[in-house]
Amino acid sequence: MGVSEIGALNEIIQGFDFTYLLSILLGVIPSLVCITLHELSHGAVAYALGDDTAKNQGRLTLNPLKHLDLMGLVMMVVAHVGWAKPVPINMMNFKDPKRGMAVTALAGPASNVVISCVFFFLYGALFIPLRRIGATGDYLLEMLRLTAVISIGYAAFNILPIPPLDGSKVLFSVISDRSYYRLMRYERYGMILLYVLVFTNVLGGPLRTAINFLAQRLSVFAQWGFDLSIKFLQ
Question: Cα(203)–Cα(188) distance, rounded to whole angstroms?
């Protein structure tokens, strides 16, 4: 590479807006964390209840690429609600198929609530140390906060009783076996309804209300983390 090429490369680097790249990362990385742990929780609970389908297909992993649905990730970054590639589950491997399916379905949203609590706590605990190191610390703090908020959104979205979201599997578990298996056959058509609801923003208002409500309640963990850090820093 000659001097002129190096000079041109330096001009490109100096003119590049790195804040734009950071803003993308601020959305993508928290979304991947929430998606990966959500789907891993489904697979791990299913495995504990006797279904090794997810394990055999390599879905008991922290590799986000195994769980990624591109459109779902885009929606997570843009709207803080979205979806991942569903973990394969064979409910016939459970001793009690309907109960096992409901527990496995609940594992995903429950894991997101736990994730939110943990990241709110980390946000509060690391607030003073990270603020002291300047802009990098501010970005890390924002990433912690966004992970907590996005995780709440992912939980709220997935608990909706619309197939194939987790809430539908919980709801279906309380109806008759005949109705349950009939409705499960039409699960794939629920994605069409979800696309319509998301892109027309019908769910926007109710979900924002739910996310804000939960964020306010769970932010107590941030206060606990902050109070704990104050004790150590004194």
Answer: 19
Closest to 22 measured CA to CA, from 120, 143, 111, 130: 143
* Non-local CB neighbours of 195 within 8 Å, separated by 6+ positions: none
Rounded Cα distance, 105 and 41, in Å: 9
- pLDDT at 134 (0 to 100): 87
| Enzyme catalytic residues | 39
CA angle 218, 219, 224 (to 5 degrees): 105
| Residue appearing with tokens 């608990």 | 159
- Cβ pair 151, 109 in contact under 8 A: no
Q: Give the separation between CA 102 and CA 169, rounded to whole angstroms.
A: 6
Which one, of 5, 42, 30, lies nearest residue 115 by Cα?
30
For the segment 11-37, what is each residue's pLDDT rounded down to a tens digit? 433 444 445 456 666 778 888 899 899
Give CA angle at 148 (147, 151), nearest 5°. Answer: 80
Report angle CA 77, 81, 84 to the nearest 5 degrees: 85
Show Cβ contacts of residue 153 under 8 Å, excluding neighbours closer than 6 positions: 76, 80, 81, 207, 211
Count Cβ atoms below 10 Å from residue 128 Cβ, excluding itself: 14
Provide the pLDDT for residue 179.
73
Residue indicated by tokens 């769980």: 67
